[in-house]
Amino acid sequence: MRQKLLLLFSGLAGLFLAVPAFAQSVSGGAGAGGAASLGPVGVGLGMGLAAGLCGLGQGKAAASACEGVARNPGARPAIQLFVILALIFIESLTLYALAMVYIKIH
């Protein structure tokens, strides 16, 4: 647990230290127009993050549904309804992120 916290805080410290470096490189050479060029990069990173975390969430939902049906086969219709509804909500996050990519690109 201690190593995980150390890794987490080290990563956060690296992210906070990278912000001034980006601010200097953007404002130093390109002026005000350089800051706008980082928008598509952020949207792309957000799309990757949303897709990856949605995949993890869908895997967890499917695993829990399989476990629930294995424990109580009589509850299959109710579990199936709720897992399909959950997968729809999880997938909508990725679709919203994809829409943001299209909006930002065009």
Task: Give the gist of this structure.
The chain is an all-alpha fold. Helices cover 91% and strands 0% of the residues.
Can you give a write-up of this model?
The protein contains 4 helices and no strands. By secondary structure, it is mainly α. The protein folds into 2 domains: 1-35; 38-106, F1FO ATP Synthase, CATH 1.20.20. α3 packs antiparallel against α4. The longest helix has 33 residues, at 39-71.
Key features of this structure:
106 residues; mainly alpha; F1FO ATP Synthase; 4 helices; 91% helix; 0% strand
- Biggest sheet layout: none
Q: Which series of helices and strands comes N to C?
A: HHHH
* Proportion of residues in extended strands: under 5%
**CATH H level, superfamily name of the largest domain:** F1F0 ATP synthase subunit C
The tally of helices reads 4
CATH class wording of the largest domain: Mainly Alpha
Q: Using DSSP, what is the number of strands?
A: 0
> For the residues shown, what is the average pLDDT?
81
Give the helix proportion (percent range): over 70%
Q: Kindly report the CATH topology of the largest domain.
A: F1FO ATP Synthase
The coarse silhouette is: flat
CATH architecture of the largest domain: Up-down Bundle
Low-confidence stretches: none
**Strand pairing plus helix content: what structural class?**
mainly alpha
Distance separating the two termini: 45 Å
* Cα Rg: 21 Å
Count of the separate structural domains: 2
